[in-house]
Amino acid sequence: MANRSGGTADGAGRTFALVISRFNEFVTRELRDGAIDCLEKHGTAAEDVHELWVPGAFEIPHVAKAAAESGRFDAVICLGAVIRGETPHFDFVAGECARGISNVSTLTGVPAIFGVLTTDTAEQAMERAGGAVGNKGWDAALAALEMVSLLEELRKS
Questions:
Q1: How many of the other CB atoms lie within 10 Å of CB of 151?
Q2: Residue 133 near residue 127 (C-beta atoms within 8 A)
Q3: Does residue 12 surpass a pLDDT of 80?
Q4: pLDDT tens string 102-123
Q5: Domain boundaries in the chain?
Q6: Which helix (H) or strand (E) holds 124?
Q7: What are 122-127's contacts with CB under 8 Å, separation 24+?
Q8: CATH topology (fold) of 25-150
Q9: What is the set of active-site residues?
């Protein structure tokens, strides 16, 4: 039988940075609320959750990397909403944001969680920010909790 490891969702004593885009704030505030709710329900103290607001999704990776390199946070949760418009701008912003967040984890060893919605419409975004599809901010926070725990377990091995 193979050994199996997986993270737990215990947030007690852990610190998290939320890097949140102000662009499409009507969506990102809901994602933020979902993430904070998840973290607090899993034992993270309110004072251990730090909000870092950036102008837009394109700026998320830069601040996420700075937060990860600061040594102050166990994980960085990136929250944003890129909604398709009439120009190719969506493709560039969404792609670079995703690539940048992935690079943060790879370069720093600190989990950087992709909680950035990429939708065709504002309605689709709202469905994923606490509507019919759930709250992807909550999901991102849960992923952060599990990743922190799993990496901690791996480092002990």
A1: 16
A2: yes
A3: yes
A4: 999 999 999 999 999 999 999 9
A5: 25-150
A6: helix 122-127
A7: 122/24, 122/26, 122/27, 122/83, 124/83, 125/24, 125/27, 125/81, 125/83, 126/26, 126/27, 126/30
A8: Rossmann fold (3.40.50)
A9: 89
